[in-house]
Amino acid sequence: MNARRSSSGAQTLRALVTHLEMDAPPRSYPPLPIGRQMALMRCRDMPLHFYRYLYDRVGRAWHWTAALRLGDEALAERLQSPQTDVQVLYVEGCPSGFFELRLLSQEECRLVHFGLMAHAIGTGLGHWFLGAAVQAAWAHGPRLVSVETCTLDHPAALALYQKMGFEPVWRKEENLVTLSEEERAAVLMR
Fold first, then answer.
1. Residue whose C-alpha is closest to residue 108's, from 28, 22, 171
2. Distance CA 99, CA 132 (A)
3. Under a CB-based contact definition with an 8 Å cutoff, are residues 120 and 33 in contact?
């Protein structure tokens, strides 16, 4: 990973992005883990501060920045759009992850964001949770479901998507500019 740091503390990172697609639902989905109190809830009228909290807690280690750079109006418009579906995973009553789907057209549903918070990673929830996201995507009735991941994401992300049935379609290199700690604090205080 090549990185350049600016005077503000932000870094420019190079990443290889992989776009994957699935053109038919899986034959079966991973079973719900037993022995845990869990709930997956679709969010309607989500407060912006809660979305930013989820996005930061899930994506901080993986350098997610795009949604944190959106102003209040743009983020509210996105979250209130009928083409957006955000669902939050709660484990033992605590937020533990989320996924965000966006209907790009009648043909395509994109899994825009998917991930677990640090306390839920490595607990055996990832495969089931991805299955729940894919099932929710297909429930919107698209012709295909797509997702993108990159070399800055969790090291197991690409393999997990492929295990679920996604197939790589194309790859490209991109630069990503991280947030400095001051920028992150200012966004999260909104």
1. 22
2. 9
3. no
Query: What gap in Å lies between CA 57 and CA 88, rounded to an integer?
Result: 12
> Could you list the residue range(s) of the whole structural domain that residue 72 is in?
3-188
How far apart are the C-alpha atoms of 112 and 55, rounded to whole Å?
A: 11
Q: Residue written as tokens 């790589």?
A: 168
Query: Could you tell me how many helices (H) and strands (E) the chain has, helices first?
Result: 5, 8
CATH assignment at residue 106: 3.40.630.30
Q: Is pLDDT of 7 > 80?
A: no
pTM recorded for the entire structure? 0.91
> How many domains is the chain built from?
1
pLDDT (average), residues 76-87: 96
CA separation for the pair 84, 168 (Å, rounded): 24
pLDDT tens, 162-179?
999 999 999 999 998 888
- Cα–Cα distance between 150 and 2 in angstroms, integer? 14
Q: Could you tell me the CA-to-CA distances from 175 to 27, 64, 155, 190 in Å, in that order?
A: 37, 12, 18, 27
Which amino acid, 113?
H
